Amino acid sequence: MAKYDETSIKILEGLEAVRKRPGMYIGSTDKRGMHHLVWEIVDNAIDEVINGYGDYIKILMHKDGSITIADNGRGVPIGMHASGKSTPEVIYTILHAGGKFEEAGYKVSGGLHGVGASVVNALSSKMEVTIYREGKISQIKFKDGGVVESPLKEIGKSKNTGTIVTFWPDYSIFKNCNFSFTTISERMQESAFLLSNVTIEVIDEEDNLSAKYHYENGINSFVEYINEDKTALHKVINYSGTKSNIEVDIALQYTDSYNEQIMSFVNNVKTGDGGSHEVGFKTGITKAFNDYAKANGILKGKDSNLDGSDVREGLTAVISVKIPEDLLQFEGQTKGKLGTPEARSVVESITYDNLRFFLEENKETALTILEKAQKSKVAREAARKAREAARKGNTKGSKERILSEKLAKATGKDYVRNELFLVEGDSAGGSAKSNRNRETQAILPLRGKVLNCEKASTHDIESNAELKQIEYAIGAGLGADFDPKDSNYGKVIIMTDADVDGSHIQILLITFFYRFMRPLIENGMLYIATPPLYSIEVGNKPKEYIATDEELEERKKTIKGNYKVQRFKGLGEMNADELYDTTMNPENRRLLRVNLTDAALAEKRIHVLMGDKVEPRKEWINENVDFTLEDDFR
Ligand code: 0R9
Prior knowledge:
By secondary structure, this protein is α+β, with helices and mostly antiparallel strands. It is about 40% helix and about 20% strand.
């Protein structure tokens, strides 16, 4: 039996702390947290590539829920550590033992990154590390969250070098979780873009899926990839520079769309919430375009400047910065926002200088982009004027007329408390109007499907009767001009039938809000109502309403005697009382809040699911939708 000395007890206490409060180390114990384990190990392999060793990383998702990550770097050192333990044992059992990693110049220490391989070991029921180094193959095995099962020993000879880590997540901690091929391969693709010349392969042995990523042109390829099914207005613009020890690498390209997509990375880790580098980039391009436009007579003396949003219409950009550890600062709950103040001025000045130069050298591209920005400016100013006029009541009832036919207003003036229900169909709309809390609840019935806004312009919205009604009812503008503080409602609630058409209407409306009123989502003001699927009457007792199939089965088990179940196929099958009681009354209803946790991912998903290319959508659905689930949309 292994001898437990003071140090081994300390080690187990350290790993025990991780097992007691996994959330503190990996954020959460859900699927997201479980994927953090993969990122931890993969990041070590990536660091080896960044240090200049190895060019290949492979990830194998096994059928038994374990996962293998392999690299062809130098291999983890296998010598003895001063403590008398082998180096791998130290690395995989001592908290934060990054060894030389921690000395590396660019290590992300903020946020949840870089907590160390020992955390992965602590949260795994089994872990095996195989090292190819010094002509030997050496292996160490752990079990039960970091207990050494078999110390480092030679198991063969080889001329190759590299490291292979396999771990079995402790599924008593990660209950009902599984690894997602899509999540892993999307992130690996991002890493492959950021590290030119590495090859990363992901294989899912359970579902027979595989992906292999290799890009010669780094973030240029990234921008081309994002824009691949859009129409680009010019070749990708790429520039880089270093100031105050901060390295900046940026690629950008305009398309004929109206969307802006900026993705940013710090030391190869995505900053999903932006931060100082993004702010600097935005200020830099706005200034560069305005100064160029003025210097070349495109903006005249009395003309107002182009707004940031004008200059970013149709822009796709990838920003990658490298910041030394002593300057790193992250903010926000998930630490996804760069705080480092220096990054702002560095990115701004490198962007300004390079873009000014590029524009002077490429007049044609400059004019194409500026023409687009000018159009955006004209549309934005027209929309603002129309909105101001509408607010002051100058439009003599045109807006009133558009709304009066349809909208049943709330009488209360407490806008934050007020709710706008967007209801599928006139008949359900009628029920909702007749039985609601008139003080706080407004009803706007929608007829059928609204426009798919994935590719729509502000002008398209203004000429669409249904969407214009929604815009006017909310009253807070559209697109760059939208301000959630002006909203007439604290909650906007989508209420549709629980069937495929209802789901379709939901996603069409979410796409509209995502494209044209995104702050409404970001501020947690968009909701989906969940009407019950069933009512059940037991004996002479009052009707009960049941939300899901599972709950119905549970309820049935507890009933002795006769009962009658009714399946609601749509909102229209409930009478006005029922609709209010079950779906609208704040005391009983269940609302789903629509939120936006990962902006870049949301962008890609909306584009794939709502865009005009069929193949990527089919592929995504085949990969991600479980067709074995019995559908209940009969
Ligand atoms: C499959 C995932 N890969 C890894 O986890 C991995 C870690 C690692 C590594 C080194 C090389 N490859 C690696 N792959 C390494 C080697 C040397 C110096 N630094 C790093 C060297 O040969 O001198 N290491 C991660 C931590 C350590 N090595 C260290 F702390 F032991 F140095």
